[in-house]
TrEMBL record:
Protein name: ABC transporter ATP-binding protein
Record-annotated ABC transporter domain positions: 19-255
CDD domains, A to Z: ABC_Iron-Siderophores_B12_Hemin
Keywords of the record: ATP-binding, Cell membrane, Ion transport, Iron, Iron transport, Membrane, Nucleotide-binding, Transport
Main localization of the protein described in the UniProt heading: membrane
Bilayer topology term: Peripheral membrane protein
Coiled-coil segments: none
Native source organism of the sequence: Stenomitos frigidus AS-A4
Superkingdom to which the source organism belongs: Bacteria
Subcellular location as annotated: Cell membrane
GO MF entry, a single one: ATP binding
InterPro entries linked to this entry: AAA+_ATPase, ABC_transporter-like_ATP-bd, ABC_transporter-like_CS, P-loop_NTPase, Siderophore_ABC-ATPase
Entry annotated with the keyword Cell division: no
Entry keyword annotation includes Iron: yes
Amino acid sequence: MNAEPSSTIVQTFSTGVALTTRKLTLAYDGTVVISDLDLAIPAGKITVLVGSNGCGKSTLLRSLARLLKPTRGTVYLDSASIFKLSTKEVAKRLGILPQGPIAPEGLTVRDLVAQGRYPHQSWLQQWSKEDEWLVEQALAITNMTVLADRSLDTLSGGQRQRAWIAMSLAQDTEILLLDEPTTFLDLAHQIEVLDLLYELNQTKGRTIVMVLHDLNQACRYAEHLVAIAQGQVVAQGAPDQIMTEALVQEVFGLESRIIQDPVAGTPLCIPVSRHR
């Protein structure tokens, strides 16, 4: 593409943006999953939610994105209740990559990524060079340019995941929520995606909230770690301040040893097997 990035493309987002919850209670089919949760997501940082399966991480992320309405309490985007904002206004400021997203059959990668620009369209502002540039940049960053004209149906699981991440990047929001973004990816591509998200945070000030299963990756990339057990926040803070053997036991029911990662200098969790 020959289009040059405009100032809105290269801007650094304000660090005043934040998500907070107040007395947030979430339920599925009458079963409470999250109860009376007060949580502040630091603006301009990478926050990672960790916890065992079924603890409420993904449920919380869906509510932060306004995909799940609380039974009590609310989520605030800056100082406004996110449930009182219009869908388009939220989509311009907050992007989400849920677990197992589904696209219409026959959609190409480029078509999917272009959908990230739809919240910015109106009858006064149609598809622009800036939109095109952002789509091409998102494809390039995720190494999907060569597959741009392929149908999503023909891609591997890892390739599809990168296509969805590209769509989230094309949306160009100040807040990005990702539910297990490394699912289906091999180790090399996991690090590639996490490095990309880290770079977006460092260079453009994106506020990023992720659910990750790999505790060591969470400690390496998070500035703010939130450990959840049974729908409650057990601990939160910088990984090197809260990641302890006692916390791993409480959250995961697992005996472990915590040492320093020899590469990153962050906490490294070594599980203790019953058989070794």
